[in-house]
Amino acid sequence: MSEQPQAIRVERGQRPNARGEARLNWWREAKFGMFIHWGLYAIPAGEWKGEKIPGIGEWIMYRARIPVKEYEQLAKQFNPVKFNAAEWVGLAKRAGQKYLVITAKHHDGFCMYDSKETDYDIVDATPFGRDPMKELAAECAKQGIKMCFYYSQTQDWHHPDGDGNDWDYDPAKKDFQSYVDNYVKPQVRELLTNYGPIGLIWFDTPKAMTEAQSRSLLQLVHDIQPDCLVSGRIGNALGDYASAGDNAIPEVFVREDWETPATINDTWGFKSYDHNWKSTQDLLHKLVDIVSKGGNYLLNVGPTAEGVIPEPSVERLTEMGEWLQRNGESVYGTHAGPLQGIAWCRSTARPGKVYLHVYDWPADGALRLPPLAHGDIRAAYLLSDASRAKLPFGIEDHQLVIRGPQQAPDALDTVVVLELPGEIDLEPGVNA
Ligand code: FHN
Q1: Which tens digits make up the pLDDT trace of 76-117?
Q2: Rounded to 5 degrees, what are φ and ψ at 139?
Q3: What are phi and psi of 147, to 5 degrees?
Q4: Which of 11, 12, 19, 383 could form a cystine bridge with 243, CB 3.0-4.6 A?
Q5: How many angstroms does the Cα of residue 372 sit away from the middle of ligand 1?
């Protein structure tokens, strides 16, 4: 494909030869992951010296130009006594999320794991003294969720040679190559050596990383854990899969492996006064929209400094999980469906089945669609109906019409299954 939708920047795209790799199969099937932004920024929670700092919570050090020596002091207060790895992983499980990506090091440079490369980490610098990544990795293994790390490879506002901090350090004196070779790489090695099998490393904001730098980092990951995936934000179009912009959903189906990272409110790291929570329906529609276009949804939670995932996030994730319990077959392991570009519905598919996701149920219960290229539909029924009662369907005025109940069976999204003969697999573009 020559044209790339704007939601996915070319340099954050997928390495062409990764498209066919079976290493990605677990991730392709997973569709839905939990993102966790957790760090020292949860203490100020959006406010510095009595002033509300605009923007996303984890950027407070940068936006308020907080000197390293001052920001460092936060570590002495960081004591998330309510942190419970089993609860966090249990929430992801209940939500129907299959992988968990947590900030091992964000742009502020504070390491949320026990690093031998610095003392600026949660074990050495906080009263908490525990390694939450160890606890999460153990719980993920126990509960069958893929443990994954976010790692900020370019921006580091604490390290003198890292990118971004020009208020403590003179950019002209920085040795970025040395930071990559002597700090980033040893830390990535730690993360891939001390926590068991890691599903993926979510690199971010590649900025001016050269192709050689991105490539050598990719090589390092694959040398240590060949099955570990690397996000498109390693830069230079070298990711195992493409990374869409934050909260950005492509307008149309995308023929590569891709993922949208997204917030439930308007911040990634906890902000005490951000109450702009998206509704469960909105979040669920975004999940289905993304899956119908061939992507994955990585939905964020921002725990507090005490180690608690905010209740509005818990409620929404739980409700999404309840819907997925009933309708997961239409999401997990599917691919983009043949019916694209219709405002009131989305479609996903697997061999022998097309799943129609009806967002707005028509008042007369009649679903009017363009006919599928393979007209030979065997049966239509509601996925949530255990009895599989057949819905009448037929071609009327060159339209495929399926007649369902007059009331929407599911206020969030009703899934109608269309069964096709045998292994017929309808993909976008074949329904013209
Ligand atoms: O700067 C970061 C931001 O803090 C957050 O981590 C998001 C998540 O996708 N990534 C960067 C901005 O795109």
Answers
A1: 999 999 999 999 999 999 999 999 999 999 999 999 999 999
A2: -70, -40
A3: -80, 130
A4: 12
A5: 40
| Distance in Å, CA 206 to ligand 1 centroid | 11
Closest of 366, 359, 357 to residue 344, by C-alpha: 359
| Centre of ligand 1 from the C-alpha of residue 200, in Å | 17
Segments in the chain below pLDDT 50: 1-5, 432
Beta bridge partners of 100: 34, 147
| Tokens found for residue 347 | 């479609």
The strand pair at 295-301 and 258-262 is best described as: parallel
153 CA to centre of ligand 1 in angstroms: 12
Identify which of 111, 25, 80 has the alpha carbon closest to the alpha carbon of residue 305.
80
pLDDT for residue 74: 98
Chain position carrying tokens 């407070």: 60
> Which residue, judged by its Cα, is nearest atom 1 of ligand 1?
205
SS3 content of the chain, % helix, strand, coil (to 5): 30, 20, 50
- What percent of the chain has pLDDT above 90? 94
- The minimum-distance atom of ligand 1 relative to the CA of 261 is 9
In sequence order, which ranges of 293-418 are alpha helices (DSSP H)? 311-327
User: Distance from CA of residue 394 to its chain's centroid?
Assistant: 39
Q: Which helix (H) or strand (E) holds 119?
A: none
Return the structure tokens found at 47.
């406010």
Contacts of 367 (CB under 8 A, 6+ apart): 345, 356, 358, 401, 402, 403, 404, 416
> What residues line ligand 1, using a CB cutoff of 6 Å?
56, 58-59, 204-205, 246, 261, 268
Classify residue 388 as left (phi > 0), alpha (psi -120 to 50) or beta. left
Residue with structure tokens 């370019």? 154
Dig out the tokens for 225 from the structure.
């854990």
DSSP-derived 3-state class of residue 298: strand
- Quick one: which atom of ligand 1 is closest to the CA of 59? 4
Cα 132 to middle of ligand 1, angstroms = 21
Which pLDDT score, from 0 to 100, does residue 6 have? 73
Measured in Å, residue 414 CA sits from the centre of ligand 1 at 33
Distance CA 17, CA 25 (A): 14
What's the CA gap between 69 and 72, in Å, rounded? 5
CA-based Rg of the chain, rounded to a whole angstrom? 23
**What is the side-by-side strand order in the sheet with 366-369?**
366-369, 399-403, 393-396
Specify the pTM: 0.97
Residue 150 alpha carbon, nearest atom of ligand 1: 6
Distance of CA 372 to the CA centre of its chain: 31
